[in-house]
Amino acid sequence: MLRAGLLASLVKTSLKRTVHRTRPNVLMDEGIYARGRPGTNVGPWQSFPSGHSALSAAVACATARAYPEIKGPAYAAAAGVTTAQVVRGAHFPADVLMGALIGIAAEAAVHKLTHRRRRLGMRKSSVA
């Protein structure tokens, strides 16, 4: 779970530093919308993608995989986090969608790599 969250955060941060998209509340309050402005690595210019959505999706997917009996509440919690980001004007819908996709992909990648390592480790120990 921790590895998935860290990977999601790394990808999210890299994209935020590349895209530089105005947050919706800046658009509503100041009438400014822009993308790709160099030197804008500050909060109001880091809307895309949503880090809260990336992390909540990664944690929800990891939780659902580890504890299938509570996958419904895990996914509902992640949906609540992503929805709140749009409602409070911190992100556009595309921001939270991309954040969620990053979280889902990060968890899947970590699971696949971890599973592969375990399989390889089992083969090595069974050969010895």
Automatic annotation (TrEMBL):
<dbReference type="GO" id="GO:0008962">
    <property type="term" value="F:phosphatidylglycerophosphatase activity"/>
</dbReference>
<keyword id="KW-0378">Hydrolase</keyword>
<protein>
    <submittedName>
        <fullName>Phosphatidylglycerophosphatase B</fullName>
        <ecNumber>3.1.3.27</ecNumber>
    </submittedName>
</protein>
<dbReference type="InterPro" id="IPR000326">
    <property type="entry name" value="PAP2/HPO"/>
</dbReference>
<dbReference type="Pfam" id="PF01569">
    <property type="entry name" value="PAP2"/>
</dbReference>
<feature type="domain" description="Phosphatidic acid phosphatase type 2/haloperoxidase">
    <location>
        <begin position="1"/>
        <end position="111"/>
    </location>
</feature>
<dbReference type="InterPro" id="IPR036938">
    <property type="entry name" value="PAP2/HPO_sf"/>
</dbReference>
